Amino acid sequence: MKLSKPELPSLDVSDKVNKMKGYLPRQEPEPQIGAVTRILHDLGLAVWFGGSIFGILSLNPSVEVLDDPEERGKMVDEAWARFQPYGAAGMALVWITNVIMRRAAPRRPTPTYNTLALAKDFFTVGSGLTSIAALALGEYAVDDYSPVDSATEPNEATDEDTAKAQSGLTIATIAQLTCGIGLIVTSALLAVERDKSR
After folding, report:
1. Continuous segment of H or E residues that includes residue 1
2. Which residue among 61, 138, 157, 174 has the highest number of C-beta atoms inside a 10 angstrom radius?
């Protein structure tokens, strides 16, 4: 008489492993900022801030070398008009990538990270607002044929309204540079704090 082997229940290991995984807590992956986002952010910041520094610290005062005071205003006006589309594009990149980076904040940020993120938001908004203010004041301070010493310095032939606009432009450009430096510093410190928050 031939004995038959008893049938053993089939053990499907993958089903059991998947079932056990359902009981384990799931750990979501840490949000990461993509390389393209960082590159675009840094590129936008470099274009906007680099152009602003060149214009404010080099171009505006250097037109004093032109002999005709009316030509000085024309030169500054034309140079800034050519830069404005690039500066606006750079600032737009900074704003868009800052929103993307804020959405990819670490799950457990340090208190320093939170403070720096708010400071960066402040400097980002400040950079945009001071750029708009400088643009608006520049339209009044430096007309095509305004007789001026430089973009921010009137001369004896400059009318009173233009001189006031030049004063306001000086304040706006100082604020613009301050916000730009703050934006660069907080961006660098945030990158360090992001690594600590993992």
Report:
1. none
2. 138
Domain hosting residue 186, numbered range:
33-196
8 Å CB contact between 152 and 170: yes
Quick: pLDDT tens for 151-190. Answer: 778 778 777 887 888 888 889 999 999 999 999 999 999 9
Structural domain includes residue 24? no
> Is residue 37 included in any domain, yes or no?
yes
pLDDT in tens, 69-126: 778 888 888 888 899 999 999 999 999 999 998 888 888 888 999 999 999 999 999 9
Is 133 inside any structural domain?
A: yes
Task: Tally the domains of the chain.
Answer: 1
Tokens (6 digits) for 4:
């038959």
Fill in the amino acid letter for 37: T
State the helix-helix crossing angle for 35-53 and 69-103, rounded to 10 degrees: 160
Residue 13 lies in a domain: no
